[in-house]
Amino acid sequence: MDTETKNIVLIGMPGSGKTTLGNLLASRLNRKCIDLDDYIELENGCSIPDIFKNGEEYFRKLESKAVEKVSVEKNIIIATGGGVIKKKCNIQNLKKNGIVVFIDRPLENIISDVDISGRPLLKKGIKEIEKIYNERYDIYKAYCDFSVHNILNLETIVDDIVKSCNEYI
């Protein structure tokens, strides 16, 4: 598939900048950006914290259904939730028509910036964020087509993603 139809899929920890970078990429490339958590909320008529009241497994099922629907679209930016990598079928679906980019942000930056109020799995605090980071980091690296470090200014990161996507194709 050519670069005009491939989706750009952003994965990474909560607070890594997926949504912000997704919107900037969409603007730069004149594409639609779908934030997967927003999509799930819209499809189900309630917030992520409310969905999590039914348990994480219930949320993950809804997330997988959303991934299935969204991943068949073409030429979009998809900002995933941090745990999308917990089910291999999600990554398989996202890779069918997408380039998967790991937004690699240092743990200390995530901890200092992340608003945990709307993030059910992070409400336990810093130790929980560290635990999730350590559990997921290698999985993000294994599933991505390439990674970018979110330590520079946002426009430079967007430039890096666009350049790397063009080289990847």
Category by helix and strand content: alpha/beta
Mean pLDDT: 91
CATH level 4 superfamily: P-loop containing nucleotide triphosphate hydrolases
The number of domains is 1
Q: How would you portray this structure in words?
A:
By secondary structure, the protein is of the alpha/beta class. The protein has a single domain, classed as P-loop containing nucleotide triphosphate hydrolases (Rossmann fold). It has a five-stranded parallel β-sheet, sandwiched between helices. The chain is globular. This is Shikimate kinase. Keywords: Amino-acid biosynthesis, Aromatic amino acid biosynthesis, ATP-binding, Cytoplasm, Kinase, Magnesium, Metal-binding, Nucleotide-binding, Transferase. One of its GO terms (biological process) is chorismate biosynthetic process.
Key words describing this protein structure:
169 residues; Rossmann fold; 5 strands
